[in-house]
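User: Hello! My lab partner asked me to get a predicted holo structure for this protein. The small molecule is pyridoxal-5'-phosphate, SMILES included with the sequence. Please write out the structure tokens.
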Amino acid sequence: MWRTSIPKLAQKVPYIDFSGQYAAERERILAAVDRVFSSGAYILGAEVEAFETRMAALCKTKAAVAVANGTDALVMCLRALGIGPGDEVLTAPNSYVASASCAGLIGATPAFCEIGADQLMDPAALSRAITPRTKAIMPVHLTGRVCDMEKILKIAAERGIPVIEDAAQAVGAERGGRRAGSFGRASCFSFHPLKNLNAAGDAGAITTDDEELAERLSLMRNHGLKSRNEVSFWGYNSRMDALQAAVLNLRLDGLDGVIAKRHANAARYLAALRGIVDCPPNDPGDVFHLFVIQADRRDALQAFLKESGVSTAVHYPIPIHLQPVCAPYGYKKGDFPECERQSARILSLPIHQYLTDEQIDFVCAKIREFYAR
Ligand SMILES: Cc1ncc(COP(=O)(O)O)c(C=O)c1O
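Assistant: Hello! Below are the structure tokens for the protein in complex with pyridoxal-5'-phosphate.
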């Protein structure tokens, strides 16, 4: 299934390889597309229901609600929990903007909690960051590694604050034998094309053990329609397309293989790069959505790798609290020093499942070369 030699691409090591993915799945994708077009059911329907059942089984939750994207999943979870103006939603400042915009979009206030050296929400900082206005805690399983949920859930339970997992990057990840998506009151996933379980466009889901909440969310994603003509509350148009569900259903079959190959890639990087740059831990529950090193002279390293034909990315160069959109909340440089320090050092190396060993060795050799100069 995976490549054994370097493909003839313009870049020696591309950050992602959609053409490799399509080549491996073409027949099954075409069959799935044919099935959807033949059924004439383009939105929700049997494909989406099958995906919801499989997603709930994967996360070991009672329910999963398929929606149009991960951002909508977060927005609707907050709304379904009654969060709104005057309330604070506490999340990580080093995340993708959607972890905070979901609060801002419903008139609530995004608030931030410092991260640890591991890039994840620091439970010690969480206790200090909670205020009387905190109405939800949203840990982010950034890069595909699950936060310290035992401590976070304990702190939240002591104060009666619901936890919503932002599991957008962590489908299939585990901690202490429990799956990402099964810890919080509700959990949100993204199936953006760059995610480990990826749709052919935008798609997302919410998992929960709270069946009443799931029922409310499944109305909310469809205009609050209780029946064809009866609207029970103002909702969204955030339904999953059947085509996306069909693609996700077939890719779910290969998810374990994707995760295993990413683990193998990570192990190869770790063996070659430890001691040269700061590396992530080799956590068995990690799904390595990203492989993020922390490096001195990051920008120069990234430029050197680019010149060498290695494509990398930075997730994310500007912490959310320092974005112009957050100016009205009064945040300033120095508010989250660990997050800010890491934002100048983090670099995501290619980790996708179509990488060859030769390609990984090439990246590692180039990094060694950079620091030997
Ligand atoms: C941590 C995190 N949260 C939320 C999102 C939002 O997901 P989407 O792009 O599907 O709206 C993403 C993904 O892009 C993400 O990485």
